[in-house]
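Human: I hope this is not a bother. Would you mind checking the protein record under this note? Thank you for your patience.
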Amino acid sequence: MVPDVPARGAAVLAAALAITVPRAAAGAPPEPGRKGPPVHLGAEAATNVATDVGVRLSLEVPLRLRFSTSVGVLPGPYVDLINAVVVAAGGYDESTAELVRGALSKSLVWRTQVGWRFHPDWGFYLDAGYALAALGGGVTGQDVLVLATGKPAPQEAGQKLDKLSFSVGSRLHLLVAEAGYEWLLWDRLVIRAAAGFAGTVAAKTKAEAQFSTGRAKIDALITEFGNYGAAYLDDIYTSYVYTPTITVAAGYRFF
């Protein structure tokens, strides 16, 4: 009898598949929480020292592409930390640090970032994007502006306007980047840590006088003085406000 070669070949192939497929499926297990659908949505509370404290919404899509947006606040101690680093490095003096503190403290910070997770089974990632710090600031006396900028205060009939004060607020545009790791626990809890950098690429400051003298010439000098202080701050931000960041976050993965 002539053997049925095609039938015997099919039988051998089926047997081989029965052996090799289970073995391939039994490879090294992924990190807990990495299995499942290729799309993940999560929310977390995070602090990015020294730029903001807030909440973050993140989305990961196929190919491990990552998208995130967050909103938070720039607390006073973080501004103090930035000032301490720049003053220690000789970037500016304490009078300018006081002016920066008044213009930036309690600013709202919005971040949006894109990135990539390097391996399907582990949490190493790299994110980069844009941040906006705005809507902060406070009232600053003219003496602070004079000390910081070195520009004489406006005078009326040869008399210094001692009660002159300015509402100073700054809007900063920053580029941000971070490299970090996400730990997924029990398929839902997210713990994240990262190191990164934030640098100011553009700034817009307003320094508006809190009262008017009623004399057009003097009020014009006051406005000019405020504008000079605002331009001085913008130059300080784009020249010196570059800071390393440390991120710590905890959150929940919805799916």
In short: The domain at 38-253 is CATH 2.40.160.20 (Porin). Confidence is low (pLDDT under 50) at residues 12-30.
